[in-house]
Amino acid sequence: MRPMAATSLPRTTAACPVTFDPPRPGARVPQAIQGVPGAYLVESLLSRAECEQFIAASEALGYAAKKSKRSGPAIRTNTRLLYEAHPDITRTLAERLRPALEAVDVSPVGTWRLAEGSLLLNARWRLNRYAEHEEFLPHFDSGHALGPDCRSLLSLILYLNDDFDGGETVFFPGGQTRDHMLPGDEDAREVRVRPAAGTALVFHHYGPQNPRHAGLAPHPRPRAKYIIRTDVFFTRAPVPASATLFGRDPQRRRCVVFLGPPGAGKSTQLRRVSEAWGFTGLDFGQCVRDALARGGDLGERLQRARRKRGALQDAAFGGSDARRRPSGWLPDALCLELVERRLEGLGPTPGLVLDGFPRMRSQSNFLEGSRWLLLAAVHLRVDEATRAARLAERTLPGPDGAAVKRPEDDPESVRARLVDWERDTLPLLEHYAKRGEAVEVDGQGTPEEVTRAVLQALSGRLLAEARPFFPPALTELLGEAPTDGVNHSSRLDSLVFRFQPASGAALYLKLAPPWGAPLATEAAFLGSQSARRVGLAVPVLRGLFTVGGDVSALVTEELAGVSAKRAAQACTEDTARERLVRGLAGALRTFHAVPVPEGAADHSVPTLLRRARERLARGEVPARNFTAKYGLALQGAEALAGELERLEGLARGLEGGERVLLHGDACLPNFRVDDTGAVVGCLDLAGVGAGDRYWDLALACWSVRHNLGARWAETFLEASHEGPVDRARLEFFTDLRRFLV
Q1: Is 688 within 8 Å of 723 (Cβ atoms)?
Q2: What is the pTM of this model?
Q3: Among the four 66, 68, 455, 601, which has the fewest Cβ within 10 Å?
Q4: In terms of Cα–Cα distance, which of 614, 645, 625 is closest to 348?
Q5: How far lies 73's CA from each of 70, 111, 266, in Å?
Q6: In this predicted model, what pLDDT tens digit does every residue of 670-694 receive, in sequence order?
Q7: Max alpha carbon distance in the chain (Å)?
């Protein structure tokens, strides 16, 4: 396996260029570097004779200047050689290093173990030669992934000589360098490591202990400085596909990061995307404003940091120098504390959407711990004119309720923030792009258009993450059929992707975790006699699979016709609307008349209430279901718990209803209509079960009201069954649905 993307083919040798000394007794013990968590020295890994052979072999292959692909000035000024290490070399070094590496703690990023055999070390090495005045400027290492369960966690630098002055490796434990921070800033601490021939330097390059570091220029006597740079790989037990795709593991949540200059629309999309996916939105700027408003110890430390920043700028630049930045970045430690405090009060949540954090590479390490699994860093690309117009219009409520401008949106502050964006955040975006985690979205359109584009990009990322889990039979079934990567599911516990083969019907791939849509039950129903009695077309089952150990995958053929939701939106005449609504009512009556098959899922009221209670405890109840838009505005876990307790009380006095076969997901998008508007089929039958018919009527009535209006919801209810409508029963199931849809 070769994880490193090189600018040119690495050079190698047919025979091992080094004759290694005989093994020495005793294990090499790593020595912790004081002041740099997770950094160690392993002395005498190579003898001086072995080092000299490495230097001679590298010179014979030849060094060359590296062509940097990153924007801005190059971060290295030396020459280097990409070298594919001979297997004898990697085997020998792995044997010598393993005892020392086993003592290195990588638990801050999860439960990982050293890779076995030749996979322990990355076989593609970067051999660097530093002549006088050549250096490696401050940077962070990123590492490489060989899939979700094998990645490098440690950087390894082998010093091959020490016959020079200077040339130290410098760590910046505070994350900042002296040229990055203002003079006098205490965060710009340095720890220097003096090279010693044959010594290995090992440090984290993934997770919260990843340090910013640099390589200082040597003063050769009589020659340049030579080092070998490679990586140490770790593996872990396979992560269940459900944790990767649906993120319910309490120790590992999905997160999405928004990046973009001021005025790109990050705050707007934070709110819209978090609502659409049921994630929690965290606006770092708002966290700062809230902390300042509350005061207390944290608010006072924020004020002190700002005053100190201003004083340092006064001392460095004077009162009006163009290089002044009205606010600048807060210290990393304070930023992390703000985020941690905000996360403490979240409670259960399936994921997190972030705006304003991380803003620079030193902060991104926090998201590489064991708790968060980054789905994507979304770059909102917006031109300067659009950004300026948005910033000119942006306000927030003032103390008296009147709209006021944010201080950070005045022209001088915006110019300063753009400097910070280009200097500090663009490199962060490049970091995510290098790892394949960045997606670029055109942010020029309306908020609705941008949200659709963002959701499509995130869905595409989920599909890309799902593919490695596909069993061979599923991969063969889908073949080369293209897909736009759009998730067609409106549920948080399933994913649905459409594939269009070169010939034949389109295929729908539905993925669901153990707690999600019961796809095995749906597959059984689609193949049963009951499905043929519903009087409507149902999808043709093409296969049921298990993906990644615990995710179900169902493949069906697309039904003829169009979505009833789309048909409703296209209706311009009352006659067409009435036909559609009465057709939906008739389809449900037909469905409810089919005998309930043995083993049908239980949708009785006690079971539904229990599921609602479980979802609420896990943080899986979408906040959007309790907004004014959907008829009941509630906020916070306490308010939702109170609402569920109210329903549990009402259920005790609810008379038992007739037990019928339920469609389960009786909203307009799940029905297909022909070109006359007649309902001809059911698209999704994952919710099929047995229970009270009002479970279906409540959702269908809500869907008709949402798409066509209250008048047509009443027409639907009138046509749905004989006799008067039990309004109390309908309201009960409508309110209970909020917890389960």
Answers
A1: no
A2: 0.82
A3: 68
A4: 614
A5: 8, 38, 28
A6: 999 998 888 999 888 888 999 999 9
A7: 101
